[in-house]
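A.,

Following up on our hallway conversation. C-alpha cells first:
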C-alpha cells in the first residue's frame, strides 16, 4: 500500500487506479489452488487462512478510496468486492471436504471475476500507460507474494513451492520482452528523453537482479528464504514506480 500511494502522490490524476490489484488477486488464486488441491494438514491450512486474511486490508483500503467522490470507479469497486469475497470464503471454509470445495470453487469464481474487472479497467487505459499497469509484471509480483505467503504459513508442499521460482523466471522473461517491444514502439513514435532512458535502465536492472537471485538459488538448489522473498517482492512491486518517470 505504501508503494501504491507513493506512486499516486507522484502523479496528477483524477482517478486512483491500483498498480498491484491483479498481483493480490493472483496470490489469492494460487492460495485457493493450494486449499483445493493441496494435501495439507489442518495446522498448515489454518496458518495459510490467517495469512490470506491479511489481504483484506488491501481491499478495504481500495474500497474506501474508490468510494470517494473524486476517485469513484466501478471496476475498482468490483475488484475490491471480489477480493474481499475471496478472503471471506477462505476464512469461512468448512472442515467438511465437500462443503469446503464448494466454498473454494465460489472463491475461485470471484477471483476470476476480479481479474476480469482488472483487465476491463486496463483495456480502457491509454497505450502510454501500458508499462505502468503492465499485467505481466503484476502476475510476477503475485507469484512472489503467494510464495511468501506459503513460507510464512510454513507450508510443506515442497514440489509446488519449487515450481514457483521457475514460473517467476518465465514471467520475468515475458515481462522484459513485452516492455522491450513497447519501448521500440513508443521510441519510434515519440523518441526518448534522458529521464525516460534512466527509468527504463533501472527497470531492466531490476529484472537482472531478480533473475540473478532466482538463477543462483536454482543452481545451488536453495529454497527461497523469507528475507529473499521480501527482497524479490519489494523489487517486483516497485517496477511500476520506475514507469511513472517515463
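Then the amino acids I'd put at each of the 246 positions:
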Amino acid at each position: 500500500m505504501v508503494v501504491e500511494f507513493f506512486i499516486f502522490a507522484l502523479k496528477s490524476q483524477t482517478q486512483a487506479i491500483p498498480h498491484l490489484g491483479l498481483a493480490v488477486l493472483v496470490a489469492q488464486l494460487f492460495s485457493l489452488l493450494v486449499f483445493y488441491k493441496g494435501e495439507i494438514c489442518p495446522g498448515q491450512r489454518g496458518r495459510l487462512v490467517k495469512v490470506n486474511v491479511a489481504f483484506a486490508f488491501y481491499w478495504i483500503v481500495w474500497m474506501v478510496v474508490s468510494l470517494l467522490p473524486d476517485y469513484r470507479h466501478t471496476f475498482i469497486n468490483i475488484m475490491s468486492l471480489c477480493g474481499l469475497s475471496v478472503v471471506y470464503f477462505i476464512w469461512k471454509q468448512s472442515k467438511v471436504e465437500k462443503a469446503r470445495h464448494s466454498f473454494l470453487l465460489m472463491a475461485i469464481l470471484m477471483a476470476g471475476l476480479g481479474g476480469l474487472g482488472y483487465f476491463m479497467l486496463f483495456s480502457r487505459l491509454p497505450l502510454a500507460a501500458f508499462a505502468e499497469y503492465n499485467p505481466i509484471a503484476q502476475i510476477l509480483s503475485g507469484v512472489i507474494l503467494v510464495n511468501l505467503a506459503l513460507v510464512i504459513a510454513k507450508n510443506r508442499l515442497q514440489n509446488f513451492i519449487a515450481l514457483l521460482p521457475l514460473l517467476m523466471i518465465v514471467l520475468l522473461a515475458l515481462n522484459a520482452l513485452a516492455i522491450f517491444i513497447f519501448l521500440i514502439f513508443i521510441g519510434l513514435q515519440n523518441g526518448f528523453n534522458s529521464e525516460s532512458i534512466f527509468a527504463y535502465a533501472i527497470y531492466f536492472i531490476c529484472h537482472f537482479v531478480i533473475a540473478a537471485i532466482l538463477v543462483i538459488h536454482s543452481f545451488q538448489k536453495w529454497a527461497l528464504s523469507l528475507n529473499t522473498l521480501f527482497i524479490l517482492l519489494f523489487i517486483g512491486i516497485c517496477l511500476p514506480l520506475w514507469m511513472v518517470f517515463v
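The radius of gyration is 18 Å. Curious whether your intuition agrees with the design.

B.
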